[in-house]
Amino acid sequence: MSEPEIVELDEIDCRFEPRPWPFAENNREAIAAHWQEVIARKPASFNGKILLLHRWEVSGRRFRGAYLMTDYASFLAWRDFGTPGEPKWNCFAMAALQAADGAFLLGEMAEHTSNAGAVYFAAGTPDPSDLDGNVVNLAGSVTRELEEETGVSPADVAIASGWTAVFHGPRIALMKTVCSSLPAAALKARIEGFLATDSKPELSRMHIVSGPDDLIADRMPPFQRAYLLHRLAQAPSEGECVSGA
Questions:
Q1: With 60 as the cut, is the pLDDT of residue 23 above it?
Q2: How far is CA 179 from the centre of its chain?
Q3: Bridge-based pairing state of the strands 119-120 and 104-109
Q4: 226 and 3 in contact (C-beta within 8 Å)?
Q5: Cα 222 to Cα 35: distance, rounded to the nearest angstrom
Q6: What is the band of 240 on the pLDDT scale with cuts at 50, 70, 90?
Q7: pLDDT (tens digit, 9 = 90+) per residue, 34-85?
Q8: What SS3 state is found at 170?
Q9: What does the alpha-carbon distance between residue 207 and residue 130 come to, in Å, rounded to a whole number?
Q10: N or C: which end of the chain has fewer CB within 10 A?
Q11: CB of 11 within 8 A of CB of 62?
Q12: How confident is the model at residue 237 (pLDDT cuts 50, 70, 90)?
């Protein structure tokens, strides 16, 4: 697979355009068998509905795309079988949480999750709760996932106006910077305090990344490492985040 490609964006316009997915229709038995293996390993897994990107384009600094709806079992099988069939993309929004001192805060996935031990920003594959009519509200997904996973609400952060897209094979990570007024150590302590109150948190702990030496190469996916190296190499940008959600 080629190296991740990074593109700066001003706007995202994604829509829900339902259509059949031949992979899911034609591989029901294999998908069901794979799902049984998944829940044997991770009994808490839930086969809910998710959105999968079936077309996209970048024009200037604008990303346009369209999603179909499928179930999580079909998505996992497609991913684990090597993403066969006509191209589809796991396109998701991520909250690039940045502390007041410039460091980034990333979560480590808890043992009961499908990606246990992986380290990345708060995120989630889009699902029906992200739909506003036929609009896929990825900006709303950013703040929802951030609050659900870390307890940090939109009122606690300033949110950047633009996006950074990281393209890597069948994954498209749409990063939006969210800035806290707390320094990294205090922000980490606050989030881990929140995690301690949850009987089954999605994250087990937080990691601070202040420079390249803080990257955890064996547990951060390539798109996550590429984004962090890209951002850490940049000089701080005045006014990058704006008040409000």
A1: yes
A2: 17
A3: antiparallel
A4: yes
A5: 26
A6: low
A7: 999 999 998 988 999 999 999 999 999 999 999 999 999 999 999 999 999 9
A8: coil
A9: 27
A10: N
A11: yes
A12: low
Nearest-angstrom CA–CA distance, 103 and 90: 27
Residues comprising the chain, all counted: 245
- The rounded distance, in Å, linking the Cα atoms of 224 and 119 is 9
Sign of the Cα torsion 208, 209, 210, 211 reads positive
Q: Residue 125 burial (CB < 10 Å; 0-12/13-18/19+)?
A: middle
* CA dist list (Å): 191 to 92, 111, 155, 234, 238: 22, 18, 15, 26, 26
Q: Confirm if 226 and 6 have CB atoms less than 8 A apart.
A: yes
Q: Among residues 205, 198, 232, 230, which one has the least CA distance to residue 219? A: 205
pTM for the full model? 0.93
Angle 218-233-99 from CA coordinates, rounded to 5° = 80
